[in-house]
């Protein structure tokens, strides 16, 4: 990020690379390569994957189970969702290139994600659960599910389908209100965050649960959309905790991505 960042588990100076931003940018580069065939986009993607595989610390390093750190410093702070998201990137590149090392690495990271799954098919933000500053939150859960689905769709390996479907059921029942509003966590209704709405639209559109995806969109449009077409950050329990300002990445980029994903997956009849 272009700002100094202090999380509960580590400190990241301005412009320090991290796995989640790298994965998001590499995903865009890879889509650019597939759309245009320009090698520079492919090389950027492969460079990002090398960073993830070679420069980030392995907090779990077993033959078939790997967990990467969030940033390239030796801090034992295990974040679950970043392993699923980066695995999703790797498996997409494997599908196009046939590089078996990428499939092996992606599956090893997902094996860690599976290890971190609770008995009731949820994930804490960090692992083990006792180290997590929060319980089961909205958008990180959606990102985990998308990473698992990336693997299933790319490989056809249905062994992961059960984990995905059970996790999706928890996500739907515990992390959204009946009207489509995104809960902050399973045990905390507020604040309703625009990123949670966007992630829900993406995850349920990809799961072909269009009724749920459209319900979330309708709620977001009614409650978060501003007069100028941009999107508000959060709705709190009261006006004192409501944040109506907008942010380019967190609010508008994610909602643009969500709406495009929903449109791309809706039946075209």
Please explain how this structure is put together.
It is built from 9 helices and 6 strands, in the order ββααββααααβααβα. 41% of the residues are buried. The chain has 269 residues and is mainly alpha-helical. A hairpin with a 2-residue loop joins strand 3 (58-62) and strand 4 (65-68). Helix 1 (19-36) packs parallel to helix 3, helix 5 packs antiparallel against helix 6 and helix 5 packs parallel to helix 7 (194-206). The strands form 3 sheets. It has a two-stranded antiparallel ribbon. It starts with a strand and ends with a helix. The protein has 2 domains: 1-175, Glycosyltransferase (Alpha/alpha barrel); 177-269, no CATH class.
Summarize the structure.
With 269 residues, the protein is mostly helical. The protein has helices spanning 19-36, 39-55, 81-97, 100-116, 138-155, 161-174, 194-206, 210-223, 248-265, and strands at residues 5-6, 11-12, 58-62, 65-68, 192-193, 234-235.
């Amino acid at each position: 990020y272009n700002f100094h960042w202090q999380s509960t588990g580590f400190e990241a100076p301005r412009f320090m690379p991290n796995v989640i931003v790298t994965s998001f940018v590499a995903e865009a580069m890879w889509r650019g390569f597939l759309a245009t065939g320009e090698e520079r986009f492919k090389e950027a993607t492969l460079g990002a994957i090398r960073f993830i595989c070679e420069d980030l610390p392995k907090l779990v390093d077993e033959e078939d189970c790997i967990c990467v750190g969030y940033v390239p410093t030796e801090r034992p702070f295990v974040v679950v969702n970043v392993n699923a998201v980066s695995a999703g990137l790797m498996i997409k590149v494997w599908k196009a290139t046939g590089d078996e090392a990428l499939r092996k690495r992606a599956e090893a990271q997902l094996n860690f994600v599976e290890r971190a799954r609770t008995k009731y098919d949820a994930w804490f933000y960090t692992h083990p659960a006792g180290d997590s500053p929060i319980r089961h939150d909205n958008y990180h859960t959606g990102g985990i599910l998308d990473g698992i689905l990336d693997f299933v769709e790319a490989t056809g390996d249905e062994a992961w389908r059960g984990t995905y479907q059970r996790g999706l059921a928890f996500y739907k029942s515990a992390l959204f209100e009946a009207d489509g509003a995104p809960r902050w966590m399973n045990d905390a209704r507020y604040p309703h965050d625009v990123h949670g709405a966007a992630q829900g639209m993406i995850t349920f559109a990809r799961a072909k649960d269009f009724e749920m995806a459209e319900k979330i969109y309708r709620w977001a449009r009614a409650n978060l959309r501003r007069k100028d077409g941009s999107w508000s950050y959060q709705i709190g329990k009261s006006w004192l905790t409501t944040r109506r300002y907008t942010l380019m990445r967190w609010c508008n980029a994610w909602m643009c991505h969500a709406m495009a994903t929903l449109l791309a997956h809706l039946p075209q009849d």
